[in-house]
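ESCALATION

Customer reports they have been waiting on this structure for their group meeting. Please prioritize. Original submission:
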Amino acid sequence: MGIYNDIVAKQKSIAIIGLGYVGLPLALEFSRKYKVVGFDINPKRVDMLNRHEDPSKEVEPREFEGCDITFSHNLEDIRNCGFYIVAVPTPIDDAKSPDLKPLLGASKTVGKVLKKGDYVVFESTVYPGCTEEDCIPVMEKESGLLFNKDFKVGYSPERINPGDKVNTLTKILKIVSGSDAESLEEIAALYGSIITKGIHKAQSIKVAEAAKIIENTQRDLNISLMNELSLIFDKMGINTYDVIEAAGTKWNFLKFSPGLVGGHCIGVDPYYLTYKATELGLHPRVIAAGRYTNDMMGAHIAKVAIKKLISNDKKIKDARILILGATFKEDVADIRNSKIVDIVKELKSYSVNVEVVDPRADSEEVFEEYGFHLADKIGTGYDGVIAAVSHQEYKDLNETYFKSICNANSFVLDLKGLFRNTFTSMEYWSL
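Update from on-call: job pushed to the front of the queue and completed.
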């Protein structure tokens, strides 16, 4: 084999472009066997990584030890690499359309250093066709080289699950694809050398892109069904989690739960698929309906809180509500696309006084992203509590604790069903 043998012999290095949740673990894992340059355009992030500090708080300092890696924001440091892996974010804009600026920017960066014989693999989640139709032309234009003649390309979708310490990078089966038969074998060999769970060779780059995007679209739709059911069961006075527990006794029932769908995967990726479908003249009603249901849940929860304040004879303008959790999921520091913000905005539109606490999130980061600071600590005198994120730190709380921080005639909205069937005197509600 060509490029793979050069990397094994350390005659060529691997460059990882983008050092966030996806890129950093990948860079460290490869650097335990090969020479790696971790590249990021954010100098502050690079400085932290050189001090063995992960800005995402997912990777421990000890995991940097024994790695043959250089962190840099200098383009010259990746010029002599031979294998480039792009792992930058693929967000959506305010109109919920794909924002390809980070991806196309990374493609331009790689194009500036691309040489004959080099390989480029994309891991960023995109719609089918994006790698070949959007990214490759940028690299060709910037480098003056010809795709598949001078350089090869592949796509290998990331499957990182933030906060999961069991299903880590090497223990998750990896999909790989290449622009021709040779590139597929080279890319499979390189990834296969670090992934213990195994490799699946997709038939084409488009198949690999599509596989990734439907993983999250399927999950989005399943959660949207549970959210819609929770709206129905709430009207009936039935607890949705009780229903799921009962239905889950059937061997082929899929136990999804209702809740807020945020983050940088499930809450974003379906929009990439619907965008491409619309571009092709199709209108994906099922996917769009699921997205609508999940996107409106934050406002729905806030309105439940407002109704409870009114029914408890609370003065809305003077009411105080505490929200436990600001991150997009439990036990992570990531606040990207957090739907907790939708609850905060809706409550504040009614002039409710809202305090948000989170032991994992960074208050300054929350302020920069969403315009409000986290409270330093949990106070007292609340008229309601919304237990929004099931961080480990909240799992041992109980009714006695909530009564101690709340006024009389207050309530707890338990979005994750953590305290289900344990309240006896305080008003309790869950999805």
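Sent to customer with the following note: The radius of gyration is 24 Å.
Escalation resolved.
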